[in-house]
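task queued by scheduler; priority normal; single chain, no ligands, no partner chains; default sampling; output format set to structure tokens
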Amino acid sequence: MELLQGGAHLALSELGGADLSGEPDTTGLEFPDNRLLIDLCGELDANLAKIEAAADVAISRIGNRLRITGDPDGRRHAEAILRGMYARLEQGKPLSNGDIDALIRMPGELFETSSEAGDSAQIEMFHGDKIEIRTRKKVVEPRSLVQKAYVKSLFSNELVFGLGPAGTGKTYLAVAAAVSSFIEGHVDRIILTRPAVEAGERLGFLPGDMKEKVDPYMQPLYDALNDFLPAKQVAKLIEEKQIEIAPLAFMRGRTLSNAFVVLDEAQNATTMQMKMFLTRLGEGSRMAITGDTTQIDLPRGTLSGLVEAERVLRNVEGVGFTRFTAADVVRHPLVARIIRAYESDGQP
């Protein structure tokens, strides 16, 4: 049987009960391009070992064929991952550990075709069921189903909340969406902000002018921007006020029109600050608000504006909420295990 998946031509042999070796419970896959198969398997077959652990199967290689042994569900899972990896390589795309992790979480999702264009066809980001955010420096793809839903929400709702633990891509994807919208001409400027709250330690008075004092708090936003735009372009756009990076307190009294606005670390905004910020939304603008309610650095007894906003706005039309979990962490795998350990211990 010949499968066509995202432009990839993959010869598949489903040998119900007996495969290339005559063993039961085995699926055989044959790949036409042996050079791509080398990249697919990874150095010392490290990629295959990763898939074996994720799908609870055994994978062996014979020439340009792979043999998957295990229960039917595991074999189907491994087969979908391998098809997605090979399709990605045929498209000339890189295959990093993060890309493999994404396929393990949602095998085939990044490469399926569908007649459903999605709400954001206006910026040519959705290709059927596949989602991409195109920026000047890279193409960003969701790496979990929750990330996928979040990106869709960013382009289909005027106000979006991304809630969940560190490392799940909440801010990164929001800034990528802002850059993409700016490049495509859907907004005239990007505004990135966060509360200037110290994380559990007192730094005292910082030297320098206002920009030098607040820049340490804003550095994660600069880092995200520099991932999507050349450094010289970022500097030029900031100088021309087409990109603004400022503390939340600087938003008071403004109307933010024709802009993509991102509020990061929103759990450290007070109720009054959050209400002030939400009412800045102007004509032609979108807002993304990200935060982790388990990492609130406000003084004891001060209610987080993010917690209050989630309660008050949950059922308001035009407002989207996406909640991430440790399963969506896309940083080092150890980060997800650390988050789960704290959760199981009952600590915030």
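post-processing summary
- The chain has a mean pLDDT of 81.
- Residues 177 and 294 are 25 Å apart (CA to CA).
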